[in-house]
Amino acid sequence: MGFFDKIKEGLRKTKEAAASNVNAVLATFRKVDEEMLSELEDSLILADLGAELAMQTVDELRDRAKLKDLGEDQEAIKAELCDILAEKMKKNNGLVLETKPSVILVVGVNGVGKTTSIGKLGQKLTGEGKKVLFAAADTFRAAAADQLTIWADRCGADIVRHAEGADPSAVIFDAISAAKARGADVVICDTAGRLHNKKNLMNELAKMNRVIDRELPGASRETLLVIDATTGQNGVNQAESFNEACELTGIILTKLDGTAKGGIVINISSRLGVPVKYIGVGEKAEDLLEFEAETFVKAFFE
Prior knowledge:
Elements: H1 3-10, H2 12-28, H3 34-46, H4 51-67, H5 74-88, E1 102-107, H6 114-127, E2 132-137, H7 144-155, E3 158-160, H8 168-182, E4 186-191, H9 199-215, E5 221-228, H10 234-246, E6 250-254, H11 264-272, E7 276-280, E8 288-290, H12 293-301
Parallel strand pairs: 1-4, 1-5, 2-3, 2-4, 5-6, 6-7
Antiparallel strand pairs: 7-8
Helix pairs in contact: 1-12, 2-3, 3-4, 4-5, 5-12, 6-7, 8-9, 10-11
């Protein structure tokens, strides 16, 4: 299955429940008028774009329809809508991993698929010829390190782990030391799931970042937030809180194939000004897809 087809299949539930409403509006109305725009705004909200973003999108479509004199050209109207939504998202330029080693810190609430996403990402990077080392800094969830060890064995990555309940920052310190000694290209740090409104746990993330800053000054850094797409608008709240705590560089959106709330991708990236780096549309490593806004929006409506 090609890249576009994988995204289309991953968005099937969203299309059935939400995007189809948008398509129905575009097919019903012969021109861009206020009745059509009102219906379109409602449909975009139902597609989980959020009220504010839906209103902004409709306002821009109104202006562009007048400026470009789109008239009754439904395909042109649809293409313009796709362009507006794609432009709302921060452009994804891929992972910036320019130093040796570089660091990827992966954060998020409980149960969103952080460890699995790390495993898939590690498999991608080792497949590109990079030497990867996993830091099993989720020392609180039972068997988290065991799960990461399985992924390490599967993709040929090294792993540094401590006993359950150990200090996560100590794990990261040892992982960075091991990465320097072994010539690793990338250190990917797993972290314990934490509620975005728990200050002490957010402070723990700050401590981990201080260790990375001290041990690898000037290193390329990615801080990726994993969000479960099925959480819908609550994912926006999570993203805003984590962004304040640790300056996110990207989002990984998981379980997109299991939800009708796919429009949350556009909303989160637009609200935070942070790119979506990857989306998960299945269980296999190859189902973690590098995000492309234009392709995503096109698949959203086709």
